[in-house]
Amino acid sequence: MTSKIEILASTLASVLGEGASITTALGEVTVVVKAADYARIMLTLRDDPSLQFDQLMDLCGVDYSTYGEGTWEGLRFAAVSHLLSLVHNWRVRVRVFAADDEMPVLASITGIWRAANWYEREAFDLFGILFEGHNDLRRILTDYGFIGHPFRKDFPVTGFVEMRYDPEQKRVIYQPVTIEPREIIPRVIREETYGMK
Q: In this model, does residue 84 exceed pLDDT 60?
């Protein structure tokens, strides 16, 4: 007897063919597609009668530069989507890697699922992944003057600039980050026999 996951993986393999790599692990099916085939395969996942993934549940950016304790040798940036088929009660994860690590660009899927709009804006804002064909790709979580993409693994924890209110100028100003070393927790030296009595 075949399980629901095996049926889904088999159906995906027959519909998508050689255009996708399908793996099953921990009760979940993951489809990895090439950037050039991304929009076409996402449209197939939605419109094929044997699949009918009509809901985009999530789309997020991922930076793989430190994945596997820094042993990752593949492409750096990916977009990962989770789709739901209400008709078949199936879920699938779709992963697509941007072909260029310096300028990660993927096709926008806002024309397939309108819900992708804010998700793609978030991936752009936090990871710097550009979505070609997105009609309103601008920052959504950081300030418009923010420099960089804070979820990239090489982004400094302290950021590049800090923002503060200047009472003399009566406005918010940006200035380079200044960090003064400080010890928050005082060091306590105890006797060797402390607590032994």
A: yes
